[in-house]
Design brief:
alpha+beta, Jelly Rolls, Arc Repressor Mutant, subunit A, 2 domains, seven-stranded mixed beta sheet, four-stranded antiparallel beta sheet, 9 helices, 42% helix, 21% strand
Length: 253
Amino acid sequence: MRRSATGRILFWRGGSLWVGLPGEPAGMHSHHAVQISLPFPPGRVRFQHRAGRWSSYPATIVAAHEPHAFEARGQLVGMIFVDPESRQGRRLQQRHRNQGIAALRTATITQGVSDLAAAFRTRASDAALIECARAIVDTLAGEVSEIADVTDERIARALQLVRERAGDSIPLGTIASAVNLSPDRFRHLFVAETGVTFRAYVLWLRLEQSLAAYVSGQSLTEAAFIGGFADSAHFSRTFRRMFGLAPASVRPE
């Protein structure tokens, strides 16, 4: 029988924290976020690269849309997902450009990981855990004041509109018109600013929304509906494609 992942999954604008004990190994997958994986000291995690080889790390950063598989048998881990179009996400990508899956220098985040581990083990509040995770992201991102969330104000406005309607039908043409762009111009500019197509971005937001509903206690069917998926099977297929495992194997504490 496959082991379920157990722990806590928390969200904030532009990121999320998954912290606890991973279950079954996650198969090859890719997703929109920059992923920071932090095994609690003195553990290690293993990642499979797109070429097929497996490598072991004390901490890693995985680029957005980078195919990978993951396992951390019996190891408590904090995984932080950062939206690549956010300020911190853009800075992280700038610092780790074209590295795919890369080891992190743990010396710079030793205290941050220790604080996160202690907060989890003492069952600290959601706010305290999020504060720990965001502090680690800030350390890894470095100075970000010169990096804008999104350069083009029209795309920044479009992202806001999409987030406000993530569970609804969102035609590209409607959003393009709302920011005074033609559909073709909007389509190309959106990819240039965010690194992903409009359709893929909407799907990522819907997945986040459904997952947030699921971890708050909704059934898979209810969570799928909240995120705008046709049914629980559609939600489950999308979740597996982006995270390498079935949502039913995730057991929030």
